[in-house]
Amino acid sequence: MLELRDVVKTYDGRAVVNRVSSEISPGEIFALLGPNGAGKTTLIRMITDILKPDSGTIRLDGRPVGGDEKRRIAYLPEERGLYRRAKVTELLSYYGALKGMAASAARDASRRLLERVGLADRADDQVQTLSKGMQQKLQLCTALIGDPGLLILDEPFSGLDPLNVQMLEEILQERSQAGVTVLLSTHQMNKVEELCDRALMINRGYMVLHGSVPEIRRQYSDHAVVVRASGRLEDLPGVRSVEPFNGDLKLTLEADATPDSVLRALVERRVVIESFSLATLPLEDIFVKVVREGLGLDQGRSERAAEVAPGAR
């Protein structure tokens, strides 16, 4: 488990990470979100022990990060680089050795990883002969070798074609099922919705959202429901308006109505209901809304964040 407790980092008297706390469990795919300059990279550098926090603690499985614990952490940065003249297998074996693997074990692991990402036939080629997409897959392998307990990926989908995006998604899910803690930093909100269990969003160093992805989306619902049904929906108690919505009907509720009360009214009217769900905002819209409104910036943590996940780990 990765534990962050009131982590603070300041530069020139300004807090770029301010009292950030969270717990990320083994097997969890966790999203770290925020606009450019929010403090995400600084936080990642503290988790990887590149930087030290000014105050607060960062622990992996109960032990401070640093020393031998760093070998259990793998980091794929957004800005990537490889030794271009090295051979593919030699490069991967080198990264395995850096993580404490014996030479034979590193070679075997390299072969397995290259097979997994479709680069087995390029094992003896120089890195500089690989296409950009192939180099990105090789860079991913440098993070995966050594079976890290914590895998940190910064914009891993950038530049990948749809086939390789799908492959990466499968690899992340495989690692999650094997008990690896995955920390994903990305601006691709659709991938967060598809892959991540929970999310933490920071802005100007402060926590502004923290909780499960479904809970966050429910918290920012439009006080409306989306219904697919046959029957009369006009003049339904508690419903202010009815409008078409992606082939269904969107029912905007009165302020004092609840989804449950509207559902009961539909049942009482004997409307045949095929589907009934909250009208939630896409995570991308929530991201933009939170950044623009600056939620929680005055007190270091928004009330909204506490509402989203009052018992969040």
From TrEMBL:
Domain ABC transporter: 2-229
Family statement: Belongs to the ABC transporter superfamily.
Recorded GO MF terms: ATP binding; ATP hydrolysis activity
The organism's place on the tree of life at top rank: Bacteria
Organism: Eiseniibacteriota bacterium
SUPFAM superfamilies associated with the record: P-loop containing nucleoside triphosphate hydrolases
Alphabetized UniProt keyword annotations: ATP-binding, Nucleotide-binding, Transport
Pfam families named among the record's database cross-references: ABC_tran, DrrA1-3_C
This protein's name: ATP-binding cassette domain-containing protein
